[in-house]
Design a protein that fits this description.
Blueprint: E1 4-9, H1 15-28, E2 33-37, H2 42-48, H3 54-63, E3 65-68, H4 82-89, E4 94-100, E5 113-119, E6 128-133, E7 136-140, H5 145-161, E8 166-171, H6 179-193, E9 200-205, H7 206-215, E10 222-225, H8 227-241, E11 250-252, E12 257-260, H9 278-295, H10 298-316, H11 330-341
The protein binds 1,4-dihydronicotinamide adenine dinucleotide.
């Protein structure tokens, strides 16, 4: 059996807790992976003197894949986001974030099954800021045809590969005519010139789009967004299906992929053993399926299926962490998943 070396970046706050629970479940599922641990974030600053050590980047470049916990970024001061740097340095241009209702997790909405595809390398989210003079600052929104085109291609290709029917671009091209204007023009061009016209396509101005999402998220399928809009809407969409504890994610480029939950380091609950490990576990399941898709290793897909069925069963049996209305801690939930794999 082939074993895949995967870089594990536990991250900050609840990161090490959810990473430990996740790796325990993957071990029990006999997933064909071997972890190579490296650090990023405050954890790396403390041990290696920088938030994103070159060694960590080189390790991902060498193995091609990483599973990453959240990294803390100071608000309104301090160092540039590790996540922004990591995505840029490895050119992980497509964030893929599936949002689906889960069995046993009751929310205000039913039948939600959408995927947020977020451009991950440019836009206002890059945080390119400058003080012009005292009391006057600027924030630069950079958009390129290359990045807008490749993310549109990723969204249509994703829709095609997964049998999805519609791609919706949410934008503000009525105001940002050049940057967001180019984003939608590139999406139209990719659809028309690269043979995706069988996939339904719509453009929605994002403020009205937010209202439509909240009224009825089931009317959406694949959402294509630039970086900052994708960041905000990912968390909004998490709220439809149970919150940040249940939304996985992948950051995918042409050469490397880093899988991580949408949530952050959750300082309010860090160290208490109560964080929901499901979002990172689901990200690991995405990674195992990605290994099967890109390296043809079906044992990886089998482990992914085993884990997915087990966590769905656990949730159906009401084995849940506190964020979902249950009482289990991080490790207890991992054990509940592992027990269901043995059935
Ligand atoms: P957050 O996602 O860390 O927390 C928001 C709320 O959701 C908190 O109440 C938290 O307790 C809850 N929550 C999040 N994940 C949970 C889980 N797995 N189980 C149960 N409850 C969970 O967002 P916040 O507070 O805005 O950011 C905290 C830090 O995380 C910041 O430094 C931010 O920059 C960083 N961050 C890092 C990300 C990454 O590394 N990919 C993504 C988002 C934020």
């Amino acid at each position: 059996m082939t074993t895949h070396q995967i870089v594990l970046i536990p991250g900050d706050g609840i990161g090490p807790e959810v990473a430990a629970a996740t790796t325990r479940v993957l071990k029990a599922a006999e997933a064909p992976v071997e972890w190579v641990e490296h650090h990023a974030g405050i954890a790396a600053l403390e041990t290696e003197g920088e938030v994103l050590p070159e060694q960590t980047l080189d390790a991902v470049r060498e193995r091609g894949l990483a599973l990453k916990g959240p990294c803390t970024t100071p608000v309104g001061e301090g160092f540039t986001s590790v996540n922004v740097q990591l995505r840029k340095r490895l050119d992980l241009y497509a964030a893929v974030r599936p949002v689906r209702n889960l069995p046993g997790v009751r929310t205000r909405y039913e039948g939600v099954d959408l995927v947020v595809i977020r451009e991950n390398t440019e836009g206002l989210y890059s945080g390119i800021e400058n003080e012009v003079t005292q009391g006057v600052v600027t924030s630069l929104k950079v958009a390129t045809e290359r990045a807008s085109t490749r993310i549109a291609h990723a969204a249509f290709r994703y829709a095609r590969d997964r049998g999805r029917e519609k791609v919706t671009v949410m934008h503000k091209a009525n105001i940002m005519k050049m940057t967001d204007g180019m984003f939608i023009r590139c999406a139209r061009a990719v659809r028309e010139s690269e043979g995706f016209t069988d996939i339904e396509y719509e453009e929605v101005i994002i403020d009205a789009g937010c209202m439509k999402l909240v009224q009825d998220p089931t009317q959406f399928d694949v959402l294509l967004l630039e970086n900052l809009y994708g960041d905000v809407l990912s968390d909004l969409c998490a709220g439809f299906v149970g919150g940040l504890g249940v939304i996985p994610g992948a950051n995918i480029g042409d050469d490397y992929a880093v899988f991580e939950a949408v949530h952050g380091s959750a300082p309010d609950i860090a160290g208490k053993g109560v964080a929901n490990p499901l979002a990172l576990l689901m990200s690991a399941v995405m990674m195992l399926n990605h290994i099967a898709d890109t390296r043809g290793d079906e044992s990886s897909r089998a482990s992914a299926t085993l884990i997915r069925e087990a966590y769905n069963q656990a949730l159906s049996d009401d084995a849940k962490t506190r964020d979902l209305g249950g009482e289990l801690g991080t490790e207890e939930f991992a054990s509940a998943v592992i027990e269901r794999m043995a059935r």
